[in-house]
Every structure is written in structure tokens, then in C-alpha cells.
Design brief:
single chain; alpha/beta; Rossmann fold; eight-stranded parallel beta sheet; six-stranded antiparallel beta sheet; globular
């Protein structure tokens, strides 16, 4: 018997980090087998590689969203994960533009072909550090994602003033989503994670109902008006560099993309992320706000002359072709600045 746990939320809300933390707790404290299904809009894998690097069994679904275009693939992937690995808990991470209710509709289908499935309450993450900004600039889609949540999780509370900011966010969420359980969490301090896991485990049910039959065919990618672009390649260096120096190069690419995109549309709504690997080690880089800068998770411990990088950009208000051009140009800049030879492995 497997418990299916969907962790949804807008781009950059912290889904992968929370899943890794919860999955680690489940495995270490409960001794349970855990698996993760990661979905990306683009064709390169960033979060899946980060999950795999954390030692968790994972499957990836790329090139679309599991709440609409890849829904049937989600059902077949759940089936294959359970048959191949037999996990006791299976975390599902949709894209940042997925509608949680539509993902759950495909859980209904999975329950018809797999006996013994259980389902957690619908969990939707809300980025506490960007709550007011997203509510102001991206209200229709942002609120639509939160609409059907059983549990609303305010993430990144370590960045908030807990006397003033956090209570205001909780109050606003209670007013608009009165039936949802609201929990504040931080993957940095660990606050709220035990409470969230308790709610997920105790709220499990053997029967899952369709929450949005009337809009089950809504294309969430088009509805979000988020454009995306991606890159996967090998970076060969003239001189060996340390992990921190490689982080600086990746940071320059991401800040360059973010700055140019903000100049074009006036804001930065979405997520720029990368996974950099060398051998068995790697790190993830994430940028959601230029004022906060790039955040890193993981390390490359040794000095090296070559690494591989997956870079994914998903931003509102920009066409994919424009994002792709900006991404390529920013890579070219560091290629010239640092004497790097970049080989495109994705489009080769």
C-alpha cells in the first residue's frame, strides 16, 4: 500500500526542498521506502537531478505539465514506480504552473488501475517571501493554485518578520481559504516540517475524489502565461576552478538573465534555476528575486576543469523564443569572459 503525496506550488516556492526534507524524515524516522516523481515543463531535468543527488529514488516527467498534457504519463509513471520499487510513500512534484486539483483528477484514474493506494490531503506551497508581490502581480493564477488546497504551507518563514509579516499572510489566507489548514515552514531551520508531515500522514484517505471535473482539460501552461527555455551542456575550462568559482559563473548567467528579463517586462515573476554536476556531486542554484540573489544547495567539493549544467528559465510575460535567446547570449558572455568552451548536449 502506497501513500501518494502531492506537493504543489508556484514556481520557486520551494517544492523540491520540502519534498527532500519530508522524504528524508519519513525514511530515517519511520524506516519507510520513499520515491519521488518530478515534473518539469522543459526538456531538461533540474529538480530531478537534485532529488537523485540527495539519494532518493526518483522518476522524472519532462516536456509538459502532469495536470494537463502529461496527465496520462503521470498515471503510467505512478504504476511503474509502484511495481518497480514498491514505495510506502510516493511524493509527486508537479510543475510550478500546475493546478493541484487537476493533478488529483489523475490520481482518481490511478486508483482505478492500482489497488491499495492512499492519498494525502492536497498540499499547496505559498512562498512567504513573495506573497504580497505575487498576489499583486499574478493574482488570478496564484489564487487559482491555492483554491483547492486542504493544506496551505507558507514557505521560507525564516525570511519573514514573524511578529508582523507572517501573521498578516496567515490572516489573508484564512480570509480567502477558510477551510484550509495553514502551516508555516522553513527548510533552513526545520520549523513546521514535523507539523506538516503529521497533517499529511494523519489526513490520508483510501478514496480520492475529483475536485475539478469541469476544468480538467484546462491547459495550465497556457493559462499561466509563463514562457520557458532550457539548456543542458558541458562546460570545459581552460584552468581548473573550485566549486565556489563555478558557482560564481553560474550566478553570473542567472543574474544576467534575470536582469535582462526584468528590464523587458518590469518585474520577475517565475523561477530561474540550474543544476550543476561533476561526477557524483553537484549543486542546485535558484533565483526568484534579484534583490535576494541566487541561492545554492549542495556542493562540488573538488577543483575541476569540466562540469555539466542544466539551466531552466520559466518567467511570466515573455515568449519562449525571447527567453531562449537571452539564455544563449548570457551563456556566451561567460564563455568569452572565462575562456570556457561550452558544448550544447541537449540540442546536439
Amino acid at each position: 500500500m502506497a501513500l501518494i503525496v502531492q506537493i504543489s506550488g508556484f514556481l520557486g516556492s520551494g517544492k523540491t526542498s520540502i519534498i527532500i526534507k519530508l522524504a528524508t524524515i519519513v525514511h530515517q524516522r519511520m524506516g519507510s521506502k520513499v520515491a519521488v516523481i518530478v515534473n518539469e515543463i522543459g526538456d531538461v531535468d533540474v529538480d530531478g537531478e537534485f532529488v537523485k543527488g540527495s539519494g532518493l529514488y526518483s522518476k522524472r516527467l519532462l516536456g509538459g505539465c502532469i495536470c494537463c498534457s502529461l496527465g496520462n504519463d503521470l498515471v503510467s509513471t505512478i504504476k511503474s514506480v509502484i511495481e518497480e520499487y514498491d514505495p510506502e510513500v510516493l511524493f509527486v512534484e508537479p510543475t510550478g504552473v500546475a493546478l493541484p486539483s487537476q493533478v488529483r483528477n489523475y490520481f482518481v484514474q490511478a486508483s482505478y488501475i492500482l489497488a491499495g493506494l492512499e492519498f494525502s490531503p492536497v498540499v499547496t506551497l505559498v512562498d512567504g517571501s513573495r506573497f504580497k508581490f505575487l498576489l499583486r502581480e499574478f493574482r488570478p493564477f496564484f489564487t487559482k493554485q491555492m483554491r483547492d488546497a486542504d493544506i496551505l504551507v507558507v514557505t521560507k518563514i525564516d525570511k519573514l518578520d514573524k511578529k508582523f509579516e507572517l501573521p498578516l499572510i496567515v490572516s489573508a489566507l484564512r480570509e480567502t481559504h477558510p477551510r484550509a489548514r495553514i502551516i508555516g515552514t522553513s527548510t533552513i531551520t526545520g520549523e513546521g516540517l514535523d507539523e506538516l508531515l503529521q497533517e499529511v500522514m494523519t489526513g490520508r484517505t483510501a478514496r480520492v475524489v475529483s475536485l475539478a471535473t469541469a476544468v480538467a482539460t484546462t491547459d495550465s501552461v497556457k493559462g499561466s502565461e509563463v514562457g520557458s527555455a532550457d539548456f543542458y551542456g558541458r562546460f570545459s575550462l581552460a584552468n581548473a576552478l573550485s566549486g565556489s568559482e563555478i558557482k560564481r559563473i553560474v550566478e553570473e548567467i542567472m543574474i544576467g538573465i534575470g536582469s535582462r528579463c526584468r528590464a523587458l517586462v518590469g518585474n520577475l515573476i517565475g523561477h530561474i534555476k540550474a543544476y550543476v554536476s561533476a561526477g557524483d556531486s553537484g549543486f542546485k542554484a535558484s533565483l526568484v528575486d534579484l534583490s535576494s540573489g541566487v541561492e545554492f544547495s549542495g556542493e562540488i567539493p573538488s577543483t575541476l576543469k569540466e562540469f555539466k549544467a542544466s539551466i531552466f528559465v520559466a518567467l511570466s510575460g515573455l515568449e519562449p523564443k525571447n527567453l531562449e535567446q537571452i539564455l544563449k547570449e548570457e551563456i556566451k558572455k561567460v564563455e568569452s569572459r572565462y575562456g570556457i568552451v561550452v558544448e550544447d548536449l541537449h540540442h546536439r
